[in-house]
Design brief:
- The protein is mostly beta strands.
- Helices cover 3% and strands 42% of the residues.
- Strands 2-1-9-4 form a four-stranded antiparallel sheet. It has a four-stranded antiparallel sheet with strand order 5-8-7-6, with no helix packed on it. The protein has a two-stranded parallel sheet with strand order 3-10.
- A hairpin with a 5-residue loop joins β6 and β7.
- 17% of the residues are buried.
């Protein structure tokens, strides 16, 4: 029996681990993630290209530059204020703060530093500016069933926003 290989229209099931540039695990998915290759579910940083032609049982490792993943770190996306001006519920590292610009667009910032009576929030993704390593284990490759592209990948988790796995 011939092994199915990854290409357009194939259902792919995989697990993956993302490591930062210091080899720290920043995200790990041990539960299989399934998607239809070539559908509107996109993988970050060339992962699509790295998976094409592979088969179930294969392992793939991909290095992803910041511009292919979460962008370069932008220092202008940080804001510091006196701690006394910040509501108590935000006075902890990692707290999420919703901020809105003049155009009404909302963005999530995270408390990244509390030091010397000052609190800093950061609108950069925590992995911005980092080169990432993704280790992928391909579990299954088969012909996709009709309509499966609408219920797998990004659709399976009802995520808002762009259709990408990142």
């Amino acid at each position: 029996m011939t092994k199915e290989i990854i290409g357009n229209g194939k259902y792919v099931s995989l697990t993956y681990t993302i490591l930062d540039d210091q080899d720290n695990v920043v995200e790990q998915h041990d539960l299989p993630l399934g998607f239809v290759y070539g559908s509107d579910t996109e993988l970050i940083g060339g992962m699509d290209r790295a998976l094409k032609g592979k088969a179930a049982g294969d392992s793939v490792e991909v290095s992803i530059r910041p511009d292919e993943a979460f962008g370069q770190y932008d220092p202008s996306m940080t804001y510091t204020d006196d701690l006394e001006n910040v509501p108590p519920e935000y006075r902890r590292l990692g707290a999420e703060v919703q901020m809105q610009n003049e155009g009404g667009e909302a963005k999530t910032f995270y408390v990244s530093r509390i030091e010397d009576g000052k609190l800093t929030v950061d609108g950069n993704h925590p992995l911005a500016g980092k080169t990432l390593k993704v280790k992928i284990k391909i579990l299954e490759v088969r012909d996709a069933k009709s309509g499966e592209e609408k219920i797998s990948g990004i659709h399976a988790v009802n995520m808002q926003g762009p259709t990408s796995i990142n």
